[in-house]
Amino acid sequence: MKSAVSVRPERIPGDPVAGPARRRAARSGRRSGVTTSLKGKAARHLRALGHDLAPVLYVGKEGITDGVVAATKTALLTHELIKVKVQSEAPEGRKETAAQLAERTESALAQVLGRTFLLYKRHPKKPKIALPAGQ
Known about the structure:
alpha+beta
């Protein structure tokens, strides 16, 4: 007579997620770097401000061109926080497009949600948005 022995993976103390749930979270990329230099309260504050914004810029079938970068820089200088929408014809994915545009405009990526994302760049002389203290 054989007895069935079940082997459970040990939980790491202080680790709320173990096993298959951790692998799913890692694959989904939910905790991967959504923001470049924004953390905690600052990112949350910008996401709240960006909720009601309409997209200022659209990335289409040409992708990120020099004209798109120039228009983004101008919009960031004017507004500090802008919403950008990636059209379905865009050659790259939404996350890649957001990261590339943030890098080329030297701005912070505050959020990627669906096909839209928020970019933030503080005005060099007269900032309009005050980030929460401690950030």
